[in-house]
Amino acid sequence: MGIVIRDAYVVLPLDGKDQAGIHTLYVEDDAIAGIDQKPEGFSEDTVIDGKDRLVIPGLVNAHTHTYMSMMRNLADDLSFTDWLFNTVNPIEDRLSGEDAYWGSLLGQIEMIRSGTTTFNDQQMHIHQTTKAVMESGMRAVICRGLVGDGYDRSDRRLQEALEEMKDGERSSRLSFFIGPHAPYTCSLDYLRMCADVAEELGLGIHIHLAESRVELENMKKESGCSPIEYAQKAGVFRVRTIAAHCVQVSDSDIRILKENKVSVVTNPASNMKLGNGFAPVPELLSAGVNVCLGTDGAASNNAQNMIREMGLLALIHKGSHQSSQCVSAAETFRMATLNGAEALGLPTGSIEIGKKADLSILRLNTASMMPNNNPISALCYSADGSEVDTVIIDGKIVMRGRELLTIDEERVYYEIRSMLRRLGLL
Question: Which domains can be identified in the chain, with CATH numbers?
Answer without folding.
Answer: 2-57+352-404 (2.30.40.10), 59-344 (3.20.20.140)
